[in-house]
Fold this sequence. Notes:
Blueprint: H1 2-16, H2 19-44, E1 50-56, E2 77-82, H3 88-93, E3 98-102, H4 106-109, E4 113-116, H5 122-143, H6 148-154, H7 173-207, H8 210-215, H9 220-264, H10 275-300, H11 304-332, H12 340-359, H13 367-372, H14 379-389, H15 396-424, H16 434-442
Helix pairs in contact: 1-9, 2-9, 7-9, 7-11, 7-12, 7-14, 9-10, 9-11, 9-15, 11-14, 11-15, 12-14
Amino acid sequence: xxxxxxxxxxxxxxxxxxxxxxxxxxxxxxxxxxxxxxxxxxxxxxxxxxxxxxxxxxxxxxxxxxxxxxxxxxxxxxxxxxxxxxxxxxxxxxxxxxxxxxxxxxxxxxxxxxxxxxxxxxxxxxxxxxxxxxxxxxxxxxxxxxxxxxxxxxxxxxxxxxxxxxxxxxxxxxxxxxxxxxxxxxxxxxxxxxxxxxxxxxxxxxxxxxxxxxxxxxxxxxxxxxxxxxxxxxxxxxxxxxxxxxxxxxxxxxxxxxxxxxxxxxxxxxxxxxxxxxxxxxxxxxxxxxxxxxxxxxxxxxxxxxxxxxxxxxxxxxxxxxxxxxxxxxxxxxxxxxxxxxxxxxxxxxxxxxxxxxxxxxxxxxxxxxxxxxxxxxxxxxxxxxxxxxxxxxxxxxxxxxxxxxxxxxxxxxxxxxxxxxxxxxxxxxxxxxxxxxxxxxxxx
Length: 445
């Protein structure tokens, strides 16, 4: 056992002392928090000004066309009107950023064409689309002789709130699944990253013949387990540091943005509350409410101690399972080119688990998600989505079963990998096939 401990110590210290490990441990959380801040900033700070040429080709009625000066401009979107479209060459040299072509049959077919030099933001497209829809809607009401006031009184914007039948509370499982998917991506990446490190470390020692010296002092199985556990501790160290640093930085970023949104929502006492100022304050209040809902969902609807604990468990379980298989591949081959034929069967289940977890975003409680969260080869990735959504007393047994099966899968993988590792680590110059691996597995020592 002391020999395995020495191997673990060697693998751990040799990796954590590398500059690449230190740099990525520091830069990783900064990049994550920075991307989060950038995403929020880009979503809230669209300052582009759009000069829109509205080409209204609808028939004239009462001396004017249907859309003539019907659109409401904003501080960022300005409208000018014409009954004739520009050519592409004219538009390219004009002062307009968008050209909206409204055909004469738009009321019937509800289709418009927008020409652009630079693709407008989703927010701008949504506003322009809403303006066109409103005018078409009003025209159809006139055609049907329906008063606008009557239509407004019966029109209903329905919001469906999903409520859990067991506790009667509103459910945010689909939103929580998105958080789980982020953790699934992290496990997916870390398993690949550290699993490949194990494989390359084994191949390097084998090609340099260092392993021949090490094997004279320790058993092949001890060497394999020492390498796997040592790299696992490196990964766990980096993940824990990432969680701590990312939590601190994310809290700072979120508090800054939340306070800025709250500050923008206030109207100074010496400012006359015109309709435009009131609208701006209303928009800021909506932004504030939206951001508050996001933070409430993110921080209070997810059981973070359980989430982080199970994240570490499934990362370690998944890593140990796949790292054993990667170590067996590294011992069986002499160079990285020969690994390709053995990598595909190992990586396919992990990739498939990632696809299932992506599918879980649209159907979090689908049968595929439930089944593949139990299978050890896919559960480390898929189960993260279910953990984020939470387990009730009726299905917590599925989580426990998944954890037990993952442990059993790891032990089985270690046993198989040990038999391949024991034979392959000292074999040189022979191209290994699946038939040869099967012989190694059946060999009794």
